[in-house]
Protein 1
Amino acid sequence: MGWEEWVARWESKQHTTAEDSPFETKDEEKTLRDIQLQIATEEFMSTGGGAEVEREHTPGSFVSTGLGIEEVQRKLTVDVHAAKDPTPTQKLDFTKRCTVLRRRIKKFREIQRIYMPSVRGVLSDGQRASFDGIADELPEATWLFMPSEIEDKRLRAGACAVGLPEIEGRMREGEAIEALEGVRKGLRTRTMTNRYKLRHYTGQALLTRGQGILRQINVRIHSAKLRYRYARVAHLALRGHGAWEEKLRVLADDDVRALNERALTAEEKAQNEHWAEIGGAIIEGGIERAAGVARGEGSHTLSWIWYTTSAGEVETDDRLEEALRVEWCKARARSGKWDSLAAGEWPGATEELTEGRRAYAAEQAATECARCADLEKRWRPILAKADAYLRSGGAAEASVDGIVLVDVNLGDELGVEEEEARLEGVEDEGDDV
C-alpha cells in the first residue's frame, strides 16, 4: 500500500489510539509514556479501586509535571540559541513562552511543598532565592529541585515523600530510553532526507528548502541528545552505578552519528570549530552540525547507540524508510493546512478576518501587477529600438566574435543622472512646460 493511500484510509476513520498510524513509528522499547501509565495504574489500585483521595495530584503526576517543565525549558533554550538575530515576531513568541513557563513553575512549587515539604531546608541561600522565585534568573534556567537534584542521599530521603525518588528513577530510565530512540529516529530521518535530496533536488530553491528541512531535523536531534543527557545524569544520581549503564552509556557528541557516518578526526573537529567561529554551518549549540559521512572507506566504527537496536535493523533500511514516511506524512499534513489557510478555509476565523486577508492579498497582487506594467512601459522603447537595429541590415554589423555592433545616436540617450531619475519615477521639470 502506498503512503498516500495509507494516509487517506487513516484519515477517513475516527481513531482512539495510534495503532496502524502512518504518522507514528513502531516503538519497541518501553517509553516514558508506558512507565507513566504503569505508575498511574499502581496509584489507582493503591487508593482502593479509584476511591476519592484528599489531593488532586499524586506523586506520579507531580514527577511527570516536573519532567514536562524541564522539556519545555530545554526546547526554549535551544530555540533561543538557534535564533541568532530574532525577529520581532520571534521575540514576542519567546516572551509569551517565558510567561507561560513562569506560571507553570509557580504552580509546580505549590505542589512541590506537598511532596517535598523539607526541600527548602536542604538548599543553599542562593538556591532558596530561586526556590522562592525572588532570584533574577530566566525561567528556562530555573532549577526545579527535583529529588535527583539533591545529591546527598540522606538529605534527599528527608526532603521527599516516601517512594518519590523511586518513582522519579523509573521515569528517568524511561525518559532516557525514549530520548535515545529520538536520537536514532532523527538520524534515520536525516539519512533518508539527504538521500532524497541528492537524488531529486535540483535548483537553488529546492536546495535551500532542503537545507531548511535538515536544520529542523538537526534541532530535533540536538534536543533529544540534551534530553538523554539530563535523564541519564538524574537516573545515575537516583540509582547509582549498575548494570543499566551497559545499555544507557554516556552520550558524547561523536556518538551521535548515523549508520553511514563516521567519527570526525581531530583535524575535522578543528576545522569545524574554525567554521563556527567565522559563522559557518558547524554549530553545536545553534544547531547545524556537519556529519562525517563515510566516503570511500572500507569500514568504520559503528556508534554504540546502534548496538541496542532490534535485530536486523543495521542490515536493512526498513526503519530508515519508516522514519522518512513519518516525516513525509507530517510535511504533507502541514502543506494541506497552509493550502486551506491560503484558500480562506481557516477553522474558527471570523468573516471580517477572512475578508481582511483576501483584501490584503488583492492589494499585494495589484501592487505587483502595477510594478510589472511600469517596468514594461519603461523598457518598451529601449527594446523596440534594439529590435529595430537588429532587424536593420545596414545599421548593424556583425563582428568577428559574433557580437552585434549597433550604431547609436548619443543624442538620444539619457545621461546617468537622468536615467536614475527616470527609474525612480522622477520627471524632468522641462516635461511639465
Note: The CA atoms of residues 43 and 58 lie 8 Å apart.
Protein 2
Amino acid sequence: MARYTSTLCFLRWASFALVTLPRIRGFTIAPQADTRCSSAQVVQGGAFKSYARQIQRRQYAEKRAACSSSLSMAASTGSTSKDIPATPGLALALDNAKRLGNGDLNDLELHRGPGEAQRRRVVLDQAYQECERITGIFAKTFYLGTKFMAPVARKAVWAIYVWCRRTDDIVDGPRAMVRGRKSLQNDLQDWTNRLQEVWEGKPRDALDLAMVDVRQNYPSLPIAPFKDMIDGMVMDVPGIGKNRYSTFEELELYCYRVAGTVGLMVLPILGTAEGVSEEDAKFPALSLGIALQLTNILRDVGEDAVRGRIYLPMEDLERFGIDPENIMNGILDANYKAMMKYQIARARFYYKQAARGIPMLAPESRLPVQASLDMYGKILEAIEANDYDNFRKRAYISKTEKLLTLPLSWWRSLNPGQVDTNIDDSEFKLTRFDRIDMEREVFPAGDPDEDGSD
C-alpha cells in the first residue's frame, strides 16, 4: 500500500488538521464516471442512492412539465423565444423545449429557484453525512479529534479527508493493481481536471458537491496543495514512482506532497490568531506535515521493506555504513541504531518547528493540533522503547496513553507562548515548498503500455 495512505493521517493529526490515520487496505471510493450530474446525484450508500433516485425522478418530471408547458405556449401563440419577455425560467423552458424537439436530451436544466436551492441543501447535508460516515469508519482517531472543532469546520475537514482518500484510491485501490500505466495516467489527469471543476463550482457527484461548498465557505482555500498531493501519487505508483530516495531533499519533497500539503489545505479552515496571517502560519504547517510523515517512515521501515521500498535516504545509510540489503533483510545492529537515532532527532526538529505554529492558530483550533503534536510524537518514544527495532515490533500509542495525554495537551493549548515567525534552519535544511513554483510531476518517458495493459 502506498506510503501516502499512512500520511493521509496528516489530515488527522496535522498542523492545522488533527489526529492519526492508520494504514488501511481495501477501502475504495473510486472516482465516478465522467458524467455531469445534477446536485441530486450521489455516490455509494443504499439509502443515499435511493434518495438520489427520488430526487432525480422528481426533477425529471418537473423538466418535462416545464418543457410541455413551453411547447404548448409556443404552439398556441405562434411565439418564439425572441417574442417572449426574458423571464429566466420561461426562457430556459423554451430552450429546453426546442432542444427536446431536436432530440437533444443532454444537460437539460431547470430554473434554479427556491425549490432547487432547497433540494441542493438537502443533498449537501446528505453528502456531509456520508463524509462523516466514511471518516468515522476509516479514521476513528481523526474523527474523534474533529469533535473538538466547530461544526462548520469539522464538516469541511471531513470533506477534505474524503477527497484525499479518493485521491489515494486512484493509485492504491483494487483497480490500480490491474491497470496499466496509460490507464493510471489518464485517471490521474481526469482527477486533476475534476479538481479544477470543483474550484469552478461544477461537481460531478455529491462528494464533490461537499468540496464545492467547502471552497465557497473558505475562499482563501488554495488549489495548489491539492494538485501537489496528486503529484505525490505519481511518486508512489509501483513501477513508475520511487522506491528509493538518494538524498533527504528528495524525501522531504515527497513528505511535503503527501503530508505537508494537508496543512496548507486545512489552515484556512482552522483559522489564525489575531494579527497572524495565513502566510505566517504556513511554515509550521509544512513542518508538522513533514514531521508526521517522517514518523510514519521510521515506524514502518519493516513493513515498507516487505513491499520492496526503502524511504530512508540512501546518503544516510551510506553515512552510517548500512548496506540497503540489510534493511531488506531486517538486520538490527549498532550502525542501524545509530542511524535511527539520527533520523528521530531530525523528525523532532520538525516537530519543534511545527510547535511554533500553535500560538499562530485561532484559539479554538489549538487543542486538536497540540494533541496531534503530543500524541503522534510519542511514536518516536515508542521506537526508542523498542530499542529501535522497527523490523519486528510496531511502535504505537494505546488509547489509554492518548487519553492520558489530553489534559497536558489542553493545558499547553491554553498557554501556547508567543508568536515567533523567525525560521530556525541551523540544524537541518528546511525547504519552503509553498514558495517554489514546482513543475507538475510527469510519468517517465517510454512506452506507456509496456506492461501489456492499457
Note: The longest helix spans residues 46-77.
